[in-house]
Amino acid sequence: MSTHIVLAGGGTAGHLFPSVAVAQSLMELSPEVELLLLGARRGLDAELLEQLNLPHKLLSARPFPYALSLRWLSSLMALGWSVLQAFRALRRFRPDVLFASGGYVAAPGVLAARLLGVPCVIHVGDVLPDRTNRVLRRYARRITLTFEASAEYFPIEKTVHTGPPIRKEILGYSREDGLAHFGLDCARKTLLVTGGSQGARPINRAVSEALPELLARDDLQTVHLTGQLDYEEVAARAAELEAEPPAYRCLPFCHEMGLAYAAADIILSRAGSSSLGEGLALGKPMIVVPYPHAAGHQMANARPLAEAGAVVIIENAELTGQSLVTTLAALLDDPDRLAAMAEASRKLGKPDAADVIARLLLEDADGLPRRQP
């Protein structure tokens, strides 16, 4: 009898990609495993899961606003409907175990699993657990952690520090592969700018402001992933300055993030757990601008990495073109510091986290009473 595993998480790339990464590892480690991914109707879930040819069910869940408002009522109604959707899907699929990677899609998946008596493993991406994981922890058989510091919020006997699960396509490329893909100069250092799947407007504006000085450096080239919303404005600014590859390349989105990371010598990004985990897994020095809202989760993620010497933090309120130029120049002009950051990043990275979590899920499934046919 094959093992059936459900993976619940989506709505944002930071919650969807860990589920995808674990699904990829499960298929490699146990080819006979049968999977079902629970994603969100909103966001990129449908497109990505169809591209990857992963069996999935999309739920109607919506995020809950942080402040009380009428949106709470619509989110609560969507949650109730999504629990019913997930319950029906799980009852048909009859899973041995469910893995939840956080976010508003995880909640209906775990609640439905609880109703059906299906054991759950939840993954905590941020140092400070989000609202969903704070609620769901009571239902978890096991809790996997991106950051060891998160353990203080959970029963210690349930926690396993695995690191963040990283998709297979992020790993395995050489710097030469990345440079060739983007038409870059091997003699220059490469700055990769990314604000996640939606982009980050403060980062985009700071890079645009800094662009004249970035272009003036003949030892630097920039790959700037703007997100769709800001692309036209950023591209227009680059055109005004006659910024062209290899010195500057502007793209709204990149489907080959493994190659983009491979080309990078320095990454500029937000401080979401997935972005940090990917950079660390690849041993990349990072300049991070933590998102200032969402209860300070990103600053909590970034601070211990800065203390370890792997990242430099620029606070969102202090991010300008000039502060970016100053921070970047301090790294480019100090090769020893840049090398030390790369080494610190490598020591903190856990590129095999998805495999570790997949093995835990298979162990849990094998150790439980089997489903009746």
* Average pLDDT taken over every residue: 92
Structural class: alpha/beta
Along the chain, the helix and strand elements come as EHEHEHEHEHEEHEHEHEHEHEHEHHH
Instruction: Identify the overall geometry.
Output: globular
Number of domains: 2
Give the C-alpha Rg: 21 Å
List the total number of helices.
14
Topology of this structure?
Elements: E1 4-8, H1 13-29, E2 34-40, H2 45-51, E3 56-59, H3 71-93, E4 97-100, H4 106-116, E5 120-124, H5 131-136, E6 140-145, E7 159-161, H6 175-182, E8 189-194, H7 201-216, E9 220-225, H8 231-240, E10 248-251, H9 257-263, E11 266-269, H10 273-281, E12 286-288, H11 297-307, E13 311-313, H12 321-332, H13 335-348, H14 353-366
Parallel strand pairs: 1-2, 1-4, 2-3, 4-5, 5-6, 6-7, 8-9, 8-11, 9-10, 11-12, 12-13
Helix pairs in contact: 1-14, 3-4, 6-9, 7-12
Summary, kept brief:
With 373 residues, the chain is α/β, with parallel strands linked by helices. The protein is 44% helix and 16% strand. It folds into 2 domains: 4-167 and 351-366, Glycogen Phosphorylase B (Rossmann fold), CATH 3.40.50; 172-348, 3-Layer(aba) Sandwich (Rossmann fold).
